[in-house]
Amino acid sequence: MSLSLYxxxxxxxxxxxxxxxxxxxxxxxxIYSEISTEEWLCPICGFEVQVGDICIYCDTPKGLK
Length: 65
Prior knowledge:
- This protein is mainly alpha-helical.
- It has 1 helix and 2 strands, in the order αββ.
- The chain has one helix at about 5-25, and strands spanning about 40, 50.
- A two-stranded antiparallel sheet has the order 1-2.
């Protein structure tokens, strides 16, 4: 094998090692753990809210009846 093939293999393995290191060091997806994903119907406009506690059309909170 020529020297350039060894050089390409070294770069490839360094890239794989870098990708593994970055994937292990990234934080978990705790950002989305506090979002309410329960579906509910808005009592004012009738829109079916799929995520969150406030209707995106009329700004009505979930608990309002």
